[in-house]
Design goal:
alpha+beta; three-stranded antiparallel beta sheet; two-stranded antiparallel sheet; CBS-domain; 91 residues; single chain
Length: 91
């Protein structure tokens, strides 16, 4: 997962391996196509004060393996993935 942010640090989208597969399936030239044309806008996020178990529930429900972490203003502050949850003993 790659996050896309604007000049203020606010997250505007994500680009996942699923986005890459869909882009390649459409025969889009990945060398010349702007990220804004192929990223997922308004991707699911979690806030820093939410529990790891909540992140796990979101990821399992959406069948995704990572979530961006944003603050109350939408600024990207980090990311959490299944490997983090495994290492922490959450799963």
């Amino acid at each position: 997962m790659t996050t896309v942010v604007d000049a203020t640090g606010a997250m505007t989208g994500v680009f996942t391996d699923g986005d890459l597969r869909r882009t390649l399936d459409k025969s889009v030239d990945v060398h010349t196509t702007p990220m804004r044309d192929v990223m997922t806008r308004n991707g699911r996020t979690i806030q820093p004060d939410q529990l790891a178990a909540e992140a796990l529930n979101v990821m399992e429900g959406l069948k995704i393996s990572a979530l961006p972490v944003v603050d109350g203003q939408g600024a990207l502050v980090g990311a959490i993935n299944m490997h983090d949850l495994l290492r922490a003993g959450v799963i």
